[in-house]
Protein 1
Amino acid sequence: MPELAQVVVDVPTMQTNQPYTYQIPPKLEKQIQVGVRVIVPFGKGKRTVQGFVVALDNASQYEGELKPIQAIMDLQPVINPELMNLSKWLADTTYSFWISCLYTMLPNLLKAKTTRIIRIIDEVDEHVAFDIFHGRDELEMAAVQDKPAILSELFKLQKEGKIAIEYQVEDRAKAKTVTGIRSLLNFEQLEDERASLHANAHAQNRLLSYLQSIGSQVVKQKDAEHKTGLKAATFNQGQQKGWLEKTPVEVYRQPLAMQVTPDDAHLAAPLQLNADQQNAVNQINQAIDNHDPKVFLLQGVTGSGKTEVYLQSIANALQQGKTALMLVPEISLTPQIVNRVRRRFGSKVAVLHSSLSNGERYDEWRRIERGEAQVVVGARSAVFAPLTNLGLIILDEEHESSYKQDESPRYQAREVAKWRGKYNQAPVVLGSATPSLESRARAVKNVYHLLRLPHRVNKQELPPIEVVDMRDEIKKYGESNFSQKLLTDLNDRLQKNEQSILMLNRRGFSSFMMCRDCGNVLKCPNCDISLTLHMDTRTMKCHYCGHEEPIPRECPNCHSHQIRYYGTGTEKVEQELHQLLPQARIIRMDVDTTRRKGMHAKLLRQFGQHQADILLGTQMIAKGLDFPNVTLVGVLNADTGLGLPDFRASERTFDLLSQVSGRAGRANKQGKVIIQTYNPDHYAIQDAKTHDYEKFFNQEMMLRRQASYPPYYYTVRLMASHPEEAKAARAMADIYGRLKQGLLSSTVILGPTPRAIARMKRRYYYQIVIKYKKDPYLHQLLFDILQDTQSRGFKDVQVSIDPDPQYFM
Ligand code: ADP
Ligand code: ZN
Ligand code: ZN
């Protein structure tokens, strides 16, 4: 029997980023396992914290006194051995705390909440007892923490030793249950009961027969009532007579938005694959069967049948008795894709979706953990789904930057997927129409295995793309979001009763307010960024910190009334469209119209049922949609992302235009795409126009090589922030000195510079970007720097390290 447990505690600092040793008290001997959460005393006084048991040990090598584990929170591990291993790797490669990595893997409901209880431990006067504690002897800190008057009294009482603060960790996860019944007697005993029944006690007689039929099973009482036609009262009598007992049965909250619609029946059967698809499926299946953790890059334009390849490979994994994980970006986790998987694999599928409630998410997680779901579809964090015996991992739209989490732990789901592939000896399939430069470069070097689907399934050509130069348009026709060309085509589709999709590229773009007289732009008081106009709430909002204020009537700088809106929001475009095409029915899709749960799916359903002629939206409409009646796609402003200070700006623009073009002409009607831009000659736009990924890839690779950017170099970004600008700058200068001294001379250090958005949430940000090919000193040095920034000289400076950053703003 191990006597000691290694526990990683919920105190996220560098100093505590290691396991601590605790005694296992005899009463918990049997329950303590690796992967359970426990409550342990930590630090001074009575403070307790939650932690995870990460290893068990024998006492022999330890001397001195160890504290015992106080309580156990789980009856079985919530982190399985694979995920335990993974969490260690994750903490190391993302420069984050082990404890944060462990929590990241769990559904929200299993994340700790600490309740602070203030308890009376000595005599207090009546005023305190009644006015503050309301006659009880304890009080939740949360109830008074914003009441300074009470707080100061409490503070005094604590000094006098009359009250004490306790930390309690409370577990918020509750499985949803309904009443179940179970027989307490065996078949013969139930028969004996029958013998002593009154002759006309028909209902009780039936109940006895029913109990005999279910043996030792637990059955939901509602189901039992339904089956037998007996009333609840009869079951209560049975309980009183000691025939049965009532016991809670766990039920799963089936996410409503995810129920399949009946007209999808044709999706159930696998399709006859074409030769390219068959080749891809064969190679993937072979890797599954051979336990070969190969990484495939499945490159194929939209509509080339990638999803069908995924589905048939998943089917093979299931046949081998294995499980499968399929990741898609959040915005393409649409009901359409979910339906396709559900239709094929039915109740074997669990879906992890950000619009699930915490309860629903927890239930799906439990189904996976118990092995009741063998196929998981989900967005980024689903890469931690507790599937065991993984046989296949798929990452669709692998180039999407949303696979990288941009807060700690800053993991890249693609890398985590590869880690899990190796651990389980299972292949990983990365799919995309426009692979990231990194992945495609790896395929060129045979690190990944390239599979291609060069043609669209329906032999439909990719739609022709027309590029409209908006500079000419504005000269000729004045300012508008719509070129004459686009308007003519929209009108034409209206006449033909066909549908159109319009995309407004909102990247790096928003509607702001500027004074015409002094040029003052209304900015957030906390952040170095302009406020965005929201017509629905009639306010100006900061998209970074959430600051909100009324729309001003006059310029706060010069008091002029000549203050007006610039830029284009979807709302404004919608208004203009209503004026230009009054007969068109429009559905607008953006963060505002889809914020409410289920709205995303609802709007798409309405559009699919042709309740509107035009779907107008932001990037969120660019992916995964498949509407046969859509024959025109318009991009209103293709180039707003091109000007951003980011080496991936061209790649993102190319990806986006390629994606959105794939929305036109999905069925047998010919589609068409119109791209409006101020940079018609830019190669990202020209190559998207000709659907030429190869050309774009070669051009972009050349530029990346010249500038020493990925995939030729790796990057890491360090950021330091402080409420005072000088302190952030000084901290960064310090760090720069250490890097310069400790790293190879072939490693490039850019900065320190203020971030593009220099101030956010009342803090100033400075950054350093490191570019390197191979530097044996880098990893350890970065950890040392993190460690040091938590000590003396760096008071209140926050330092973060982002490996392979996706954005440089
Ligand atoms: P992608 O994921 O590459 O965009 P899909 O797998 O969604 O492509 O396929 C596009 C369309 O073609 C879908 O409507 C799908 O049902 C259909 N499809 C895919 N493979 C086949 C096939 N082998 N035979 C017939 N139809 C297919
Ligand atoms: Zn702000
Ligand atoms: Zn002004």
Protein 2
Amino acid sequence: MNKKTIEDIDVAGKRVLVRVDFNVPQDDSGAITDDRRIESALPTITYLLRQGAAVILMSHLGRPKGKITPKYSLAPVAKHLAGLLGTDVALVYATETDPLGIEEAKAKAAHRSVVLLENTRFAGGEETNDPALSAQLATLADVYVNDAFGAAHRAHASTEGVAHAVKRAGKPAVSGYLMQKELDFLGGAIRNPVRPFVAILGGAKVKDKIPVIESLLPQVDTLIVGGGMAYTFYKAAGHEIGKSLLDETSLEFCKTLLCDDKIVLPVDCVVAPAFANDAPATTVKVSEIPADQEGLDIGPASVAAFAEIIKKAKTVIWNGPMGVFEMPNFAHGTAGVAQALADATGLGATTIIGGGDSAAAAEQLGFADKITHISTGGGASLEFLEGKPLPGVVALDDK
Ligand code: AMP
């Protein structure tokens, strides 16, 4: 996947349309609670400004489903970005006839300045990949840059459609620095890992992770499975799992994997009679889960066993929490694995967290700066690890 980047083309004096991923979490008052995605886009934006480009940014935020919805306006993002860049960011206004403010952006775009379109999902044609919207967006671009790794698994007008429209007009469509970094880390780990290569999968549903298990298993030396997913494996092994998460449809799949010696499962788990932080928790062996309890975290013996494997690894990819980390009493397993990744980084391993919940957990538990790479895309990194082509990347110019 060798795609052209912003450094491969001339952007000086050009109008550059950049798809970024500013889909940031906000609290009820609209304040941004985690600006990692905005910060991650800065290298591309500052490079383009330094080169003398006129930068027009676009992103989706939340799910306004094709309607202009004030709650999902990018206004707070424009303000935050302006603060980070130390320069004005002109947010254009959404109107019923021009929900992204494309015409206003055309008028406002100027060299070494930044314009931000309104939420791409204010337009009904974004998620349907409407060619009319793609064509309209393409009129903004002398150059199109996709830096939105987190949205690259979606074939939408602002990711895939516009890239094709720009190329049809004989203009370049290339990747930004963040996109390149994500592809380099995730792709490098999969194609050419320094061994031992260990993958850790957790989270709730086996079903969602079957494609990634199937894709990673032949590549890795060890595949650690934790989180809610693990209980379907225990059930497949004939254990009582009480009220723990069970994914009936994946039982057969789990059974086929039980004798694969690359797969490592937890040996103990933390159970409770209810799904609540203050429910009385006990640690039991996986073969001794009481019928009236549910497993909400991996136990300390599992953390120790996983940590041993992780510390010996040279490449580690982690996707999915080890337990219900949102509840502090059941976050110890996830914190233990995060600590093991941080230790492995210190020992020279490349450690990668594949976005989503495990990225949030590493941030929340204070390990983020000790991980080699935390992906900005949950869904996108999972699809990448599954080996699926990402439409937003495929559409870009090859080197
Ligand atoms: P996923 O989106 O599949 O990666 O799942 C993430 C969710 O799995 C998080 O919200 C966790 O709280 C949840 N989770 C992890 N372990 C368990 C468990 N043992 N029981 C119930 N939910 C879990």
